[in-house]
Design goal:
- With 231 residues, this protein is of the alpha/beta class.
- Among the domains are: 128 residues, 3-Layer(aba) Sandwich (Glutaredoxin), CATH 3.40.30.10; 31 residues, no CATH class.
- Helix content is 48%, strand content 12%.
- It has nine helices and seven strands.
- Strand 6 and strand 7 form a beta hairpin.
- The longest helix has 29 residues.
- The protein is elongated and about 145 Å long.
Length: 231
């Protein structure tokens, strides 16, 4: 198994091997043993700016490793080592901190993220920089509450509320229109009395004729029948 591990190390790019991966277990030992200091990038894997800086940071690590009197280059993954990032007041990614010899002093880098500027800072530039004290940094802002989010995004919330109100009104209207289509007709339908055949006057059934027409026709028929029997 040991020869496989060495084979994997040889297969890795030299820039990756030269970067010192720091965490809570080896951070203190690496700092105390650094005679020329360590230039550390505190980052998060999902950070777009960190990904953009990675090729330049790997190149810096390879260049520094080629000189015996140069500072080393390190990395701290803040998603895995949150305690280190909190201790050094890391508020944004990437945060570049130079730890002087034996880690006794800290200097924050604010310059350009080019290989020339980073190399100059790692060599001697840090000596002209102001020393960085993480304890003097303001505490991180608490996450915004509901009312703060509502104040900032009130237009979006109002649009969402109006949309749901519109959906509610539309649903009620559709439900009422469906009931009107399915409701039976309330118009009374005349029915023929039992034992009486349906009669019509012209093209209109007697059941739908006015009562005056039907009432006048009845006695006239009865008189005509009586006259027919008398003859």
């Amino acid at each position: 198994m040991r020869w496989r591990f060495h084979f994997l190390l040889l297969a890795l790019p030299s820039s990756v091997c030269e970067v010192v991966m720091l965490d809570g277990d080896n951070f203190s030992d690496e700092m105390s043993s650094s005679a020329n200091g360590i230039f550390v990038k505190f980052y998060a894997p999902w950070c777009g700016h960190c990904k953009k800086l990675k090729p330049t940071w790997d190149e810096l690590a390879q260049e520094q490793a080629s000189r015996t009197d140069a500072a080393r280059v390190g990395l701290v993954d803040c998603t895995r080592t949150k305690e280190l990032c909190t201790r050094h007041a890391v508020r944004a990614y990437p945060t570049l901190l130079f730890f002087g010899p034996e880690g006794k002093s800290i200097f924050k880098y604010f310059g350009a993220r080019t290989i020339e500027a980073l190399t100059a800072f790692a060599d001697e530039g840090w000596q002209q920089a102001e020393e960085y004290d993480p304890s003097l940094e303001p505490p991180p802002k608490p996450p915004p509450g509901f009312w703060e989010l509502a104040r900032v995004h009130w237009k979006a919330l109002a649009g969402v509320a109006a949309f749901f109100v519109f959906l509610g009104i539309l649903g009620v209207w559709l439900a009422n229109s469906g009931e009107d289509d399915e409701a039976p007709s309330t118009r009374p339908v005349a029915s023929t009395p039992p034992g009486r055949a349906s009669r019509s006057f012209g093209n209109v059934p007697l059941s739908e004729q006015s009562p005056d027409v039907d009432a006048g026709a009845g006695p006239a028929r009865r008189r005509s029948k009586r006259l027919a029997h008398a003859e």
